[in-house]
Fold this protein.
Amino acid sequence: MTHPLAGVRVLELGQIIAGTYGSQVLSDLGAEVIKIEAPGGDLGRIASVAPYRGVSTLFLTFNRNKKSIVINLKTPAGRALFHDLVKVSDVVVDNFRAGVLERLQADYATLSALNPRIIQCSVTGFGVEGAYKDYPALDIIIQAISGHMSFTGEPGRPPSRAGVPLADLSGGIFSCKAILAALYERERTGRGRRVEVSMFDGMLNLLAYIGTLYLTAGQLPAPQGSAHEFTVPWQAFRASDGYLVIATRQENFWHKLCTVLDDPALAGDPRFATNPKRLENRAALVSRMEAILRRRTVAEWLAALRAAEVPAAPVNDLAAAFAEPPVAEREMIVAYEHPEVGRVRLPGNPIKMDGMGATISNPAPLLGEHTDAVLGDLLRLSGERIAALRREGVIGGGS
């Protein structure tokens, strides 16, 4: 059994989420990821963010399987060490602001001269050039400016962001895909490539058909809550003890739903005979369904709906979500032992391949934990040389 990216080495200069999630995915596929941190460490280490026993769970999540070394890239000797690592690596990832790569001599022109096979991927907020290149690119900023918040949430309520940092995650999703494409191309050409991913671009892409409707027809979306703007019923409904969602995309599902609800008048009502009619009479239909669904529990309704093959699901909290059978069946919880906080359990790798073996799950590293080992093993530096670099403030962490 082997992981498909075994033998690929990634140098990560990224921080927090946008610059770390993509290489986290690559590490699950077998890549060796060496996290190069400044003496102060990744900002994702700030313990007040999603704290657990004095450590950020953000860092514990997005840095699983990685090695941490501390190099001060603001020093000539630090940059020289980084350049030596570039010579024996495949990918460099960063999410610096525009101009930082050039100041650190980590730009593609410099790195490709050292290693023509290197792939450099930058995750930015709005691109490395243009009017917004220097704008701050926090997740909520990108969610807002990309239009997502304008139609997220309940009708008549203030704008809402997605519950997870979707804009940050988009940087990782698209950077990972871009790196994999560049690695594949390099197999044919022998040369690396400069790759750049903008979180703003990513979120525009994730507008999907909603973006197409606006660009093509000028149609602006409005907040729908859990409802669907083009299909009824398709939303969350209250049962006697909680919520469930019901989705009837095709007419056959609507007819099956009417049978489950055991309301002959509902099935025969001309206002609800077709989906266009149900869209016109949404309020009346939803009100009627809510009255029926409140008579039984979520579990009772789900049993009946699933037996009739009507698409439905409970609105789970995380305790219920992680208790669903596919979680165990597909090994979607992994764990590791962390030296500071103990056992950490976290979501696993969604990518499954025949023969890939178990998910790799090594602890998120302590700051500079692997400095000595990486410099000794990859660059063949002696213990005396490593100690001297540490005294000079060029490196940190380790012994």
